[in-house]
Fold:
Amino acid sequence: MEECRKVKGKIHSYESMGLVDGPGVRFVVFFQGCKLRCSFCHNPDTWSQTIGNEITAGELFDKIKRYKPYFMSSGGGVTFSGGDPLLQPEFLTAMLKLCKAEEIHTAIDTAGIGNITDYSEILSLADLVMLDVKHLDDLEYKKITGGDIEDYRKFADQLRRFNTDVWLRAVIVPTINNNPSYIRALSEYAKTFSNIKKVELLPYHTLGVNKYKELGIEYKLSDILPMDKSVIDRWQIKINSEISEFLKKNS
Structure:
């Protein structure tokens, strides 16, 4: 474990009492760096891989341990988010090992886009992967993220081969994917993961718009209003029911 503590990484920030990043209360670490340029991203300040706060895994883990009594008592743990933590696989692996040694539940919030081809060690260590589904269609995915959906699919295929719990998360954006047919497709897609535990529909919002102005980046969805949460809630009930039925049949 001493070698793990020496591994260095770059983080953007951390949140000691996160409530929406996995089960229970979470210590959330936002890794610096992301290859995608999602049009609805509210954290463009995490994109660059050349900036960030450099820290050793040991230093970060010592911060995490101070809050262990709080998140452990809630059934929570630590969530590695970003940016995308898969872009720093060595640092992520070191953090997962340190947490596992202390029996701390770990979650990875990722779009499935890293810089290695084999994620076996990471997936064998993590307790939960919260996989961000940007879109299911090849062209729409490219339009929204600027990335190649095949890179995402390669990670998803690896994830299916592990017992790691899976939550799928999808931001629902007006004029892009806010329609019943997409929700049905998402539900069917979720069933391709035997280890699926949950599907979360997240309403598009504009809370990060000011960051774009500060960074001098064009915000591409400036003419789109926030998603109606009442619509999301109705679709969430439906998709919850379908996933619950799927899990019962396959238990």
